[in-house]
Amino acid sequence: MTTTAIEKPPGRTGQRHAPGAAPRRRRPGRLRARGLPYLLLLPALLLELLVHLVPMLIGIVMSFKELTQFFIRDWTAAPWAGPDNYAVSLDLDAPVGEALLKSFLTTCLFTFCSVGLCWLLGTAAALFMQEAFRGRGLLRALFLVPYALPVYAAVITWAFMFQRDNGLVNHVLHDQLGIGDGPAFWLIGDNAFVTLLVVSVWKGWPFAFLVLMAGLQNIPREVYEAAALDGAGTWRQVRHVTLPSLRPVNQVLVLVLFLWTFNDFNTPFVLFGKAAPASADLISLHIYQSSFQTWNFGTGSAMSVLLLLFLLAVTGAYLLLTTRSPRERKAAGGR
Amino acid sequence: MAADKKPRSPMAAPRSFLWSRRIFLTLLTGFVLLPVYVMVSSSLKPLADVSGKFRWIPSGLTLRPYLDIWRTVPLADYFVNSLIVAGAATACSLVVAVFAAYAVSRHAFRGRRVFTVTVLSTQMFPGILFLLPLFLLYVDIGNATGIALFGSRGGLILTYLTFSLPFSVWMLIGYFDGVPRDLDEAAKVDGCGPLGALLRVVVPAAVPGIVAVGVYAFMTAWGEVLFASVMTTDTTRTLAVGLQGYATQNDVYWNQVMAASLVVSVPVVAGFLLLQRYLVTGLTAGAVK
Amino acid sequence: MRIIRAAAVGAVTLSLVLTAAACGGGSPADGSGSGGGKTLTYWASNQGASLEVDKKVLRPELDRFEKETGIKVELEVIPWSDLLNRILTAATSGQGPDVLNIGNTWSASLQSTGALLPWDAKNFEAIGGKDRFVASALGSTGAPGQDPAAVPLYSMAYALYYNKKMFQDAGIAKPPATWDELIADGKKLSGDGKSALGVEGGNLAENIHQVFVLGKQHGADFFTPDGKADFTSDGAVAAVKQYVDLMAAHKIVAPGNAEYAQNQSLADFAKDRTAMVLWQTPGTTFQAQGMNPDEWGVAPAPVISGTPGRGTGTNSMVAGINLAVFKNTKNREGALKFVKFMTGDTEQKTLNHAYGSIPPVTSAQQDPAFDTPTVTVLKQTLATSAAALPQVPEESQFETVVGTAVKELFADAAAGRPVTTESVRAELDKAQQQMPKK
User: What is the ipTM, given to two decimal places?
Assistant: First the structure.
């Protein structure tokens, strides 16, 4: 009995009620009403506080400490390092800073490519599958498989396929198609970037597909009909009707994909082990290596804080640039 | 399937569109299924064959790996652990997120903006930054109160539910905004309190969205490796970490890794397919926010 | 009705989960906190073919211990991928096992955290005395001049494993004893899709073990006597270059080995695609891959010249597992009893035999079970020509940065880029600068 949701009017009914209107209307029990939202938020707030915010604050404190193996037994007693950990991380002339910067740039490039490809594949697949055709249900189910497989299983299988001597990829490219002089390396050297990208896109695009497929269903049919009356063919409809209507969906989707991809640890870790090749040295694995593996949690924390600041800045800028002002949104919503 | 009642395009699609669709979808299917094929075929080979040169058609087929997986690693235990952890994390995450999203969607209150921004920003924390602090915190809580958070399923549930919470809240706000307010106003006129309105009107109307968020929360907990590797013990280890048990110091049982992965994925994929139709109608509203 | 039911379901789920969270899902972490006098928590490393095999090997022994002493031992076998992280988090939080296994190369690093019980004279006395143990194994239990952080439990050494049939086909009568012989034999063995030697170029620890031994043969240590990193000495550079040159210059290692990190070299060996590997106790793996024990032979690992011995005759690291007691244990007495039990002659024979390792306890080594040709080679190596990896606190960092440098150099060699003394020195210099400043 979920028809209520499906039959909801296309216009954004919720938008009509400006925030703040509701509580003013109900005078009796005003105090309770005012306390209620906080009460509802309380569990979420407490959990965020416990699992994210407090540990993050501890992490920030750690970033100012000399937290090496000599002090990890009681981290509060570790000597203060002042800004030293940050200085080491940011000293671009020294190997540590240089490696961090390189890893950061690699991650930026990787994230850009991966998010772009995920979005592209997701959009294309969603568009092509908008119309019913035979086998569509089956395909839709198949396309969700990468999302449902355990990360470790999926990535280790790709690593298996990308082996130089015994893997499927070289078997096809080299043995069967005869591309290249000799079998290429995919897990070390410069090709590792491509490998990482392929695996990441394979794993990530179904989510984009899902979200976009859902987004497409919200576009009212009349809009297409109007466009068709104006003589727009399928391709033009896609360009002028479908894609613009997906804008709000894309805003959220791209941001979420960006954050996930940028912070992805599991994929490179399973694919390359403890030391990723330089071409695919993603920042999360790099920081892991600088803290857990070298027992220097102070520097690792400092690097993480820097990363956090960067992501905050990017997200802030992104939201400022892409969010239309409420007035604008209202106009767009009132199609 | 609800999702199949699509608006038929007013104009017949041109040839070019049909052909591109055919080519594109064929290639994409190949891309998606390639690793799955490798998993299936490798899981049916003896170990000596798997670690040899790849062949499209396996020669000596055997079902042995499917029997061995249960002996090499306590797979069934790990599976149960994962199911409990991911299931409980999902359920909790949904309950908490529904309340929070309802508050943001239906009430104007001071700090509303701060809350949404804070929630969003937690998505940016690099896991490494708070792995060790969180562990320390759990141990301290354990020492102070006697509640074993580290090493127990409870601690992992708590962690995972918080992982998926931000995006869940975020998506649910969107879904709830999409539920007409007239409905809860009507419920209130009928004598429901705000909570009654939430449970009797808003939640049922947003079932598709809740299912979508649930699937997302489940998958987040199901696949997590880093925290699980440090915060679980022998008895609480989850699949995501436990599958690594097929790679030991000297041996990597490739065929068993693949077989085990397939076996544990089948129930998840099946559940996924059952929920799929809700998902398609569900994700929309949240994303439109 | 539906609404009420939904609400009820929600409420029940929430309360269930909160209960689960509160009581820890029914499986509280039995850390040292709940130790008391009657139980011990023991973290074992993965020594057998799988975690389950380890449990099968250890459980009866632990039950025997319980029968003797009344102390129940909670066993957890921890995969190598997690062991160090688990120990680190345990050290940080104080919430850990009572007794644990550590890789012996971590001894000094973990010692410096202060989380492990130091083995002073009194503690050694409680387990039967320090002189029960083989000297070389004791050399890998902590920094020199300090009380050891652990005691040896299982010992292992590197040896040269060779494929008898491939040697026969190539007309080679006996396994090589020096690197020159190995290279000369290697040229005869290579070709036709086969290669002479297998290496794990992507495995950081494996790289370290090999270049450390080669360093010894070139008279170089990777640390100065006062514990400073010294990766760029001529000897160290020569050692790393010599190792990588097996692929880069002499071509007796197949380029594909540069990416190996999952023991693919053992699979290659078992499939007659590689004639030799330098390894510690790979027998069970060879058999799992379908090779018969009489198809391979074992010889001491090669040296530059002469015969294996001390100094430049070193041909193996002292590999092995140590047993440590967590300082925070609430049951030190029980823990010491357990260590005494595990290092006693009976257990040493049983366990080392089950794992194919060598007992680091002199009296247990005398058992005829350790007189097979393979074990004799290993025993001999351990006794006369094995050296412990640098016992410095920064050992873990050393493994990470130098292991990575060697991995990168192998990647260069595999891609056909030249590996020169300069490029080796540059990589090692980069590695050294990533070491913590002192």
Answer: 0.82
